[in-house]
Amino acid sequence: VINKIDRLAVELRLPPNDAYHKIKHRLEEINAMSDSCAHFCSDDEGESKPLPRISPTEGNVIFSTSEFGGCFSLESYAKIYVEMYKCKINSKEFAKYLWGDGYYNYETHKFQEKPATPTSNRTFVEFILDPFYKILGQAISEEKKQLEQTLGRLQIYLKKKEYKLNTKELLKIIIQKMYGDTSCIVDAVVHNVCN
Fold first, then answer.
1. Beta-carbon neighbour count of residue 50 at 10 Å?
2. Integer Rg of the chain from CA
3. Rounded to 5 degrees, what are φ and ψ at 10?
4. Do 116 and 106 meet the contact criterion of CB atoms below 8 Å apart?
5. What distance in Å separates the CA atoms of residue 5 and residue 19, rounded to the nearest whole number?
6. Which of 3, 64, 101, 154 is most exposed, with the fewest beta carbons within 10 Å of its own?
7. Bridge partners (DSSP) listed for residue 105
8. According to DSSP H, which parts of the chain are helical?
9. What angle do CA 40, 22, 80 make, to 5 degrees?
10. Low-confidence ranges of the chain (pLDDT < 50)
11. What pLDDT is stored for residue 35 in this prediction?
12. 98: which residues sit within 8 A by CB, 6+ positions away?
């Protein structure tokens, strides 16, 4: 679980692209450490066996913000997104494009390995971090009208009294509605531990 992703924006004030690279670097460090410890793991015949790679595309990484009570995997996020926007792509297929050097081309409506323009963002930034940062920024700066519009585009609707809550409580409600329940943790355990 990569926890406290909200801190990347709020405390570290990293732009979304830098936040992506920080997360990616941490995962690379974990995998390097895991590789260096692989000789301690062996199969039934005593042969050393490599440990599984930690990667969002493998379904063994959960992104979380315990401060606001939300979490998601690439697959759970893709499922929410596909259902919300009634996309024609399968959510499992969409999830595969949400990590790594993948870009969405808005002209062709296709995913590709190279950026369409110099300002194109990776799909993780475009589909996950940018909306997350936008919501955090608007809630923290108390831009109610803009926040309402942003949430409306995400099909998240709040009661008027909820907009009057303090920022932390408001963000808890938004994040929980945005990412749904925490079943992605159970799914990751079932997929990665039970298999």
1. 10
2. 18
3. -75, -50
4. yes
5. 9
6. 101
7. 110
8. 5-10, 16-37, 74-85, 91-96, 123, 130-140, 144-153, 160-163, 167-179, 183-192
9. 95
10. none
11. 80
12. 56, 74, 77, 78, 123, 124, 127, 128
The secondary structure of 73-125 as a DSSP string is -HHHHHHHHHHHHT-SS-HHHHHHTTSSS-EEETTTTEEESS-SSTTPPBHII
The Cα 42–Cα 128 span in angstroms is: 38
Closest CA to 91 of 174, 195, 184, 190: 184
Is residue 59 within 8 Å of residue 191, measured between CB atoms?
Answer: yes
- DSSP state at residue 52: P
Q: Is residue 99 within 8 Å of 57, Cβ to Cβ?
A: yes
- Residues 6 or more apart whose CB falls under 8 angstroms from that of 188 comprise 59, 60, 61, 62, 73
The length of the chain is: 195
pLDDT at position 20 is 97
Q: Phi and psi of 105, rounded to 5°?
A: -95, 110
Q: What are phi and psi for residue 70, nearest 5 degrees?
A: -130, 150
Which amino acid is it at 12? Answer: L
Structure tokens at 139: 């809630």
For tokens 């919300």, the residue is: 84
Residues in a beta bridge with 48: 42
- 27-46 pLDDT, tens per residue? 999 999 888 876 666 666 66
Q: What's the pTM value of the predicted model, to 2 decimals? A: 0.87
